[in-house]
TrEMBL record:
<protein>
    <submittedName>
        <fullName>Uncharacterized protein</fullName>
    </submittedName>
</protein>
């Protein structure tokens, strides 16, 4: 199966992928790269608006991936300690 790695640039995309059960969000900012489950409370629309929309992606990027291993490798992301994706 081909793995998805999609940059999320709009609220509509955010809501669409947030509703997926089998997938992960990679959130990249100036200090960290963290991979989360889609259900993690840190993956929320207000943070997305702040980091991506308001700041025009100068301080943050959101990606959706359907592969945990691939997502971690591609983005060199650490696992969120709150939602502990596996
Ligand atoms: Zn998380």
């Amino acid at each position: 199966m081909k793995k998805l790695n999609i940059e999320i640039k709009s609220e509509e995309e955010f809501k669409h992928y947030k509703a997926y059960r089998d997938g992960y969000f990679v959130i990249i900012d100036t200090t960290r790269r963290v991979i989360h489950t889609t259900g993690c409370p840190y993956v929320n629309i207000s943070n997305f608006r702040e980091k991506v929309l308001k700041n025009a992606s100068k301080n943050g990027w959101y990606y959706f991936t359907d592969g945990l291993v691939e997502g971690r490798e591609m983005f060199r992301a650490e696992k969120c300690k709150h939602c502990r994706p596996e």
